[in-house]
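Protein modeling request. Please complete all fields; requests missing the sequence field cannot be processed.
Requester role: graduate student
Desired output: 3D structure, token encoding
Chains: 1
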Amino acid sequence: MTGKADEAGVADVADVVEVNDAPSGAKRSRPTRAYWRAGFLRGGIELRHLLRNPKELSGHLTNVVVALLVAVYIDDDVPGTQTPMSHLVIAGFAAYLLFQAGLISLPQMLVTEREEGALLRLRATPGGIPAYLIAKCLLVVVTAVGSLALLLAATALVADGPLPRGPGDWLTLAWVTTLGLLAVVPLGAAIGAVLPNPREALALIMLPTMGLLVTSGAVFPITVLPVPVQQVASLFPLKWMAQGLRSALLPDSAQAAEPAGSWELPMVALVLTAWVVIGFLLAIPLLRRAARRESGSRMTARLRKAEQGGAKAA
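Delivered output (314 residues):
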């Protein structure tokens, strides 16, 4: 991972030098474009590393395999409808794939790279934080969309899983996926900026994430839960991502199992947009703060502590 950061950092610095060497009239108009270009270059490098690493790729397939197993063995219908329960679960897994990419995978990556000194190097790179965040967003979005496409294709072929039925449903699938990722990826970056270390990150993230998975209607109809639990779940993006994807993948008759008796797509868009704004308002300031707090002595102390912990465990 450190090698990836160093390699991408060269691209970032090259872009900054290009901007600084430009005439004064161009300096103000080109930095943003340079950050985006550096971020996409860095993200492309990290994607190539991912594709060449079978172990990391296999991790992204786990949820797809679990969804297939669930779809094969569930044969009931959604209560009050003729929609197979397996279709509702697949739509929920699809939402969870997107949610997991932003709220679990991304924070873990950021914390690990912070421990390896990536944020310390970004302090010496003008515009390093925006380019770094763009790269991570690109990596997470591509892997999440790829996993989603694989899930829908595999379940459709193996377990007669649901697919959008027309152009309108495909459009709904596209905008819910896009808005859902925009809602959770910056939020995941903000969380990753404040987590203490990689060893505690997974434990701190997984428990609330599993709680949201259970309470957001992703694995069974949300109407079976108490109303107060439904109200709490409605504050978070996973509930609305799952509802939006159900609207794209399930027939309209399945609306009978929704709390409002409809898909509430305007509300889906409103809540996810609110989380997009919240995520972006938090992510860059928190990453900059984390980078400012980094120093060589802090990183050395963390490494020493980790080595001592490993020695004690051994």
